[in-house]
Structure formats: structure tokens, C-alpha cells
Amino acid sequence: MEPANTLRRDRDKGGVLAHLERLETRVNRSHKQSEELQRAQAAENALGTKIHKLRYLRDKLRAEVKHRQVSRKVKASIANVEPDQIVDTSGKEVLERKLENVKATLQAYRFTGISAKLTSRGVCVCINTAFEGNLLESYFVDLVIQKPLWIHQHSVPIFIPLEEIAAKYLQTDIQHFLFSLCEYLNAYSGRKYQADRLQSDFAAFLTGPLQRNSLCNLLSFTYKLDPRDQSSPFCARLLYKDLTTTLPADVTVTYQGTEALSTSMEEQRASHETLFCTKPLHQVFASFARKGEELDTSLAS
Amino acid sequence: WEETSGVPKSFQEIHQPDPEGWESSKDLRSQVEHFNSELSFLSTLTGINIRNYSKKTEDLTNAEMTENSIKKVLQRHRLLGSCHMVTFQLEFQILEIQNKEKLSSVVTDFNIIMEPTEFLELSEFVSRAEEKRDLFMFFRSLHFFVKWFEYRKRTFKHFKVQSKIFEFKHIWKMKLDWC
């Protein structure tokens, strides 16, 4: 409490009533403080009890887990001791057959385009690609099943918009994420396959190197229907705007020469543009090859 | 997962196979269980339930091929499965040719056996997939078809529409365009 002389000074300041008022506020303040202290104390006690309760629950659960692990070990050891050689040989065979069966069925899933293996942290999905009956590369995506789902590793090429697709669908609809990724990967595989086939099987028609980007959605090449032909080659530019397609939407075929194009050549040029839009690249050249053979045989006869 | 209910040190512990469990002891039963759960997971993920699968392999390599380090194998696969209310049986052949540089696998024959249905669209894409020998296209289209069918059923129920014939061609055009 304050010393006596301060009280006398205060008393002189505003008279007795004012002094009483001041005393009152002081008392109220100290009451408030002690109330707050009490509340804090009560809260602390409550938390303390909660901590005790949680600790108790934790210890109980730990004991439960241990108990179950032990009982499982016991059960397992009993199972091993069980004389299945004597009584249950057929049971073991049945199980072995079941195992073979289920393993084979799992293998069969790759023919659906998507197969997977459960991992310790989630699942590793394998996406298989194909183009017109040709089975092509496989890619994998290793998913960790947590909230949120995340991709631990993958073998998807960098130019496929994996992050975009994941941002759109991974958290809300895994199936949609995988199907969409499948679309992109299958289309890429298909375009790559066509370009590779053109380079390997129909190099004779090309008058220069095939120019391609890593996504295989922009191709540029020069070609002649008849390598012996003295005229200038055609130049084709194929743009696959939609990355989920294997046929180009934008095709331009131009004539490289300086001389004017004859009507038949112009017809050819226009028909080639349509061909490249509607048929896979290597099949277009296969048809060129067939036409060439027909022409040769008709000339020879 | 009943075994590991409790307070794990990390979320990963929930998916960690018990070290005392199937990894070391190779208990047949738990292996079967593990693969069965993998199977049911795949079935949910792909929407396709494979009931039965068998495969036969025939080695077509002759002496000349062996000299040139070429191996030719023909695989005959038979798969029985379902996707919701649609059951199918697939028989297909894959020809595998392995030479020094690469391995090529080509579907050389593809037969889809399904019960005749009232859905013209279903038969359409089935014959297209058969023609193109495109396995993946078959499964993809089947998945979308079933989804569409379920959606249609719900919509009809909602609007209390009773109709056996319903043209949904424009949605089909969209889906089939990328086939």
C-alpha cells in the first residue's frame, strides 16, 4: 500500500469524495488483476489436466500396439509350428495357385494402359503407351499417399506438362489425373513413333534431315516422290497444336523450286496437305512408296 | 491396417510393411492378401475389373534368326473382365521381335467378345478398336462409355424420364474424335 504522506496529499487535492473515488478505482483494479490471475491459474490447471489425460491415453495406446504386435508374433509362430505338411498340403497348393493367379491378373493390367504397384508410401503407377497396335514406351509416376498427395519420382519427360495436369486433378481426382497424363503420353509416343518410322523406313524420300522438336509436335522436312526426279522437292511443315493428338491440325506443303508449279504438281501439293492431316506420317509415305511401285510396274509392262 | 491403429511416429509408418511380417517370412497367405489389395486398388483406379487372365507363348525363332541374334515370340493372351455392367472377353496376339538394337511388340490380332447390347455406340467403338488393334483405346472408350451410361441413368432418374432410346450422339462425337 502507498505510504501515509501520499494519501494526505491526495486528500488535499480533490476533497474527500474525490479521494474516495480514487481509492475505489484502485480497489477495482486490484480486483480485476486478481481475477485475471485466477482465470489464468484455472486455464493452466485445465491444460495441465488435459496433458495428463493425453499422456495417459498415449501410454494406453502404446501398450495396446505392443500387445497386438506380440499377439501377432505369437499367432505367427503358432502358424509356423502348425503341421501343414501333415494335414494341409492341399491348402498350401491352393494358396500357391491363388498366388500365381493373382500375380498373373496384376500383370494383365498393363494391357489396360495403367498398372500399379503398392509401395510403402503409396503407389507407383505405370503408364504404358501404344500407337496403332504397336506397344511403345512405359512411364512411371511414384505417388506418396499423404494429404496432400505428392509425386515422389517420375520418368515423365520434361516437356510433358505434368505439373499442370497435377495442379488441376491430382488432389481431387486421381483417376482423371492419370487418364489425362495417359492421353498426353500416348499422343507423344504416337507422334514420336511416326517421326522415327519416317526417318528409318522412308529416308529415301527425304532430301534433307527431318527437323523435329523434343515434343515431336513440330516437324519439318523436304521430300520428293521420286528421288530420280530432277524437279525441286516439296517442303512440309506439320504442327500438332493439340498435344493430345497424333495427327497434325496445321499442315503446309510448299514447293521449293523457283519455277512455276504445273497443274498436276499443284494438285499433288494440295492432296499431300490433306493426306498429312488425315493419315499417320509413315503411312502417307508408305502409300507414296506403293504408288511409286505401281507406276514402275505399269511403266515396265 | 487394424494392426497399426494407434499413434504412428510418422504417416509413413502406416504404409510400412511390418518387418516381422511378409517381407522376411514370406508367408503365402499374407502375400496373397497383399497382392489382392493391390488388385482391388487397381480395379478401383482403372474402373476395370479383370477376373481371369491366361497367356500362351510360342517361340517362332528359326535357325537363321538365331544366327543373326534375332528372337521372335508369339504371345496369345486371353483376358476376361468387366467394367460395371459390361462384361467382355478379349483374345489378342502380340508378336515380339528382339534384335540386337531393340525390342518391338506389336498386337497382331485383337478379338473382342461382348454380349450384344442395345447400345449402338458401344458396338461402334468396339469394332473400331478391334480394327485398329488398339487395346488401350478399347479400355479408354469402355471407361468413358460406362461413365456416360451412369450419368445418363442418374439424369433420367432425376428427371424421371422413361426412355429406351436416347440419342446422346454429340457427346459421343466429342469422345470418339480422338480415337
TrEMBL record, chain A:
Family: Belongs to the CENP-O/MCM21 family.
Main location: nucleus
One Pfam family hit: CENP-O
Subcellular location: Chromosome, Centromere; Nucleus
Species: Carlito syrichta
GO cellular component terms attached to this protein's record: Mis6-Sim4 complex; nucleus
UniProt keyword list: Centromere, Chromosome, Nucleus
Lineage: Eukaryota, Metazoa, Chordata, Craniata, Vertebrata
Key word Nucleus present: yes
Name of the protein this chain belongs to: Centromere protein O
UniProtKB/TrEMBL annotation, chain B:
Residue ranges, annotated region (Disordered): 1-23
InterPro entries reported for this sequence: CENP-P
Alphabetized Pfam families for the sequence: CENP-P
GO cellular component, one term: chromosome, centromeric region
Domain of life of the source: Eukaryota
Example GO BP: CENP-A containing chromatin assembly
Protein name as it appears in the record: Centromere protein P
Natural source organism: Carlito syrichta
Taxonomic placement: Eukaryota, Metazoa, Chordata, Craniata, Vertebrata
Name of the gene encoding the protein in the UniProt record: CENPP
